[in-house]
Amino acid sequence: MAMLTVKDLNVFYGSIHAVKGVSFEVEEGEIVTLIGANGAGKSTTLNTVAGLLKPRTGTIEFEGESLVGVPAHKMVTKGIALCPEGRRIFQDLTVHENLDMGAFTRTDDEAAEMREVVYERFPRLKERRTQRAGTLSGGEQQMLAMGRALMSKPKVMMLDEPSMGLAPILVQEIFDIIKVFNEMGTTVLLVEQNARMALSVADRAYVLETGRVVKTGTGAELLDDDDVKRAYLGG
Amino acid sequence: MSFLIALINGISLGSVYAIIALGYTMVYGIAKMLNFAHGDVIMVGGYICFIAMNSLGLPPLVGILLSVVGCTCLGILVERAAYKPLREAPSLAVLITAIGVSYFLQNSALLIWGADPKAFPSVANFPSLKLLNGQLTINAVTIVTVLTATVVMVGLTFFTQRTKMGKAMRACSEDKGAAQLMGINVDTTISMVFAIGSGLAAIAGVLLCSAYPTLMPTTGSMPGIKAFTAAVFGGIGSIPGAMLGGILLGVIEIMAKTYISTQLSDAIVFGVLIVVLLIRPAGLLGKEIREKV
């Protein structure tokens, strides 16, 4: 059985039907990506899994346990972390404090241990540990957001548009980091508009269009798919 | 010498404003609401201490403790009953509710304790400090007030900067959604802030009534408004801002009373606020909030 199973998910914003019967699965150890245009319902799907939004109907199961109705602040203790769209780091807190918040549900010892892991992976964050997070560059803020999500030692890390607004060289770095996180044993569920990069790191992918899953396959298959090429890879 | 005396009295009054303003500013920071009932919690704190000392004959320290415990519970209760159901409501609805809670507390006090002013016994029962060959007298209440305010400010700064819950509180103030993703229970954190703010209001109430010993159901209104002004003056949402704003406001008020006019002192205080806000709309230590488009 899959680690995370989402079945027939329907989510509304008021009267707007944003996610229409989306189903997907994530196996332990995989990198799975949801790709699609703006407004396809990718972020809505992630936010619903994270408990920030409530689905109208549908089921979300994680390790055989239903997640529907579980409040967002309980997700971390279940082993699910979301690195949200737009990074949403705590600007007024220092880099160090941001990381500590990521390990809020962990003991101080566990937090210290994970902080070393994060600082080793992101030496730039270590250099700037006492700096206010709001003073970091965009790329550094994204790394902080990812490091912060890693601090809770999640089983599944969900990343929402991690490459958004970053220079191409940084985009490559971000995707390298995602692969490293995965090799460290973290299952990854990735939402991206940068379909080419996302498909190149993903084991499997789902294509969303106006709230529906229209295609699924391995990353390599979809990179080669004519429809996907035309719609998302620029020809 | 009269300047020094005015300055000391100003700092003392300002310390009380600062303690109240801290409650205003912390609640605003996390719940993004102006808790206009905050001033009336001061009054409730005063009555609890009065009853403990006068009717039950308990020592002042026990009275203060009961007052803090009572107001902390009251703060949590008010938040749960009146504000929590309005978490997603427009801010105007919350503001009107806060004013409603304020009237509710005042009138409940009127019902329970009556309209007659009570003569509040001072909690500081030791002789005044005489300095400079007796030219400068600092009374016990002033000393206790300034010391208490210092302890409160240092303690609160330590709490917000160094402890896990304090950091979580700052994280919630900045982004509740992101804070939830960290595993922080936002509802609990908001309750905690109301509890701290109300506990501080109780301390302020006891200090205020010791310095100005008439206690009645409307005792909290004016200091509440002044402290709110102090919080805005220093930059609402900013903890150091509330401390600075409170003390400055107290000093300006007493200086105006001493050197200009007793009747006009409040007008001068609010006049200064208007000038400061014209020059620095976010307050002295407030951050300018840039609207995202």
Please characterize this protein's 3D structure.
The complex is a heterodimer of chains A (about 240) and B (about 290). With about 240 residues, chain A is an alpha/beta fold. Chain A has a domain at about 5-85 and about 155-230: 3-Layer(aba) Sandwich (Rossmann fold). Chain A contains ten helices and ten strands. In chain A, the strands form two sheets. A six-stranded mixed beta sheet of chain A has the order 6-7-8-3-9-10, with helices on both faces. Chain A has a four-stranded antiparallel beta sheet with strand order 2-1-4-5, with helices on one face. In chain A, helix 7 (about 170-185) links the parallel strand 7 and strand 8 (about 185-190). In chain A, helix 3 runs parallel beside helix 6. Chain A is globular. The model of chain A has no long low-confidence stretch (mean pLDDT about 95). By secondary structure, chain B is mainly α. Chain B has one domain (about 1-225). Helix content of chain B is about 70%, strand content about 5%. Chain B contains eleven helices and four strands; from the N terminus they run ααααβββααααβααα. Chain B has helices at about 1-30, 40-55, 60-85, 90-115, 140-160, 165-175, 175-180, 185-210, 220-235, 240-260, 265-280, and strands at about 120, 130, 135-140, 215. In chain B, the strands form two sheets. Chain B has a two-stranded antiparallel sheet with strand order 1-4. The interface of A and B includes residues 77, 84, 100 and 105 of A.
